[in-house]
Design goal:
Number of domains: 2
Shape: elongated
Distance between the termini: 56 Å
CATH superfamily of the largest domain: Reverse transcriptase/Diguanylate cyclase domain
Radius of gyration: 22 Å
Number of helices: 13
CATH topology of the largest domain: Alpha-Beta Plaits
Strand content: 15-25%
Largest sheet: 6 strands, antiparallel
CATH class of the largest domain: Alpha Beta
Low-confidence stretches: 128-137, 287-307
């Protein structure tokens, strides 16, 4: 049976199509030659849309800081030029506009005489669903537009964390993420026009945060993330990552692409803090004026980001 599998190209292709891993293959000119069903699911583009096209025209991947993985920093280029396998986590731009965190493995495809004829890329989703971590599904507690916990549940989680901090004398980190410009967009295009922005931002945020962190709705255009084991440094760097990945996401609206503009405030909730003072601290950091991401990240326990 196994020799028949290897010697039968159609059967071999069928196996690759149905593997629970995203796989795409490019030639020496970086044209896409194969794109399986799992790659379609993970990145959103159908095989018939991308096969034969240049990789750069389809795949937009970046690192945690938002810098694009291209040129000498592209793992595919390393496989094509040096034949060396590469492994890293990259944030792919999904066809729907949000960023998806994927673990990628690149391998050189060798032909006769060990000549490099192309490269194969394997994709694995890194996101772990919060419901899988927290036990029973949160039916009835999820926001209908974004699919993440509602403000009521977010407030309950935040209160629980603050009560735990008082008992353990250990703080935790909080991010408050606000989308900019949605009020004007609603006025111009109608009340439902903001939903794609909220949904896309929520998807990017779910892939930007570690599985142990909690993400939920907060205000009308806001999200709140709770980082239970974070230090002041990791809270600041996570805020930086979130801001970078959100500003590299986009929304398709009636044929036009709109970037997502955001500001991200971060704070540490110390033992003995109360919820209202914590929220006031982050509101103050939102309205304290615009700062560059790097400057904000180094400016104490709260920061301000604007895209």
């Amino acid at each position: 049976m196994f020799p028949n599998l290897v010697e039968n190209p159609k059967l071999f292709r069928h196996v690759l199509e149905d593997l629970p891993l995203g796989i795409y293959i490019v030639d020496r000119e970086r044209r896409i030659r194969f794109w399986n069903r799992c790659a379609e699911y993970l990145i959103g583009h159908l095989g018939q849309e991308v096969v034969g096209h240049s990789l750069e025209d389809v795949v937009q991947a970046c690192a945690r800081r938002g810098n694009r993985l291209s040129g000498e920093h592209c793992p595919v280029a390393t496989a094509l030029q040096q034949g060396l396998p590469q492994q890293c986590t990259a944030y792919y731009l999904h066809k729907n506009g949000h960023r998806v965190a994927l673990r990628i493995h690149t391998l050189a495809v060798l032909g006769h005489g060990e000549v490099i004829e192309g490269a194969a890329v394997l994709l694995e989703e890194t996101l772990v669903c919060h419901e899988e971590l927290s036990g029973p599904p949160m039916y009835g507690c999820l926001d209908a537009a974004t699919g993440i916990p509602s403000r009521r549940l977010t407030r309950a989680v935040l209160n629980e964390c603050m009560a735990g901090a008082k008992g353990s004398h250990q703080g935790f980190g909080v991010l408050r993420i606000r989308l900019l410009g949605l009020e004007e967009f609603r006025v111009k295009h109608g009340p439902q026009s903001a939903v794609p922005f909220l949904r896309t931002a929520a998807q990017t945020l779910r892939h930007s945060l570690d599985a142990e962190n909690f993400l939920g709705c907060w205000g009308e255009n806001e999200f709140l993330a709770v980082l239970p084991t974070a230090s002041p440094v990791t809270v600041a760097t996570t805020a930086e990552t979130v801001w970078n990945l959100l500003r590299h996401s986009e929304v398709l609206w009636w044929g036009d692409r709109f970037p997502i503009e955001t500001e991200v405030a971060h704070a540490m909730a110390a033992a003995g803090s109360d919820l209202e003072s914590l929220v006031r601290e982050m509101v103050a950091s939102h309205s304290s004026g615009t700062a560059t991401p790097a400057a904000a990240a180094g400016g104490g326990d709260s920061g301000h980001r604007q895209g």
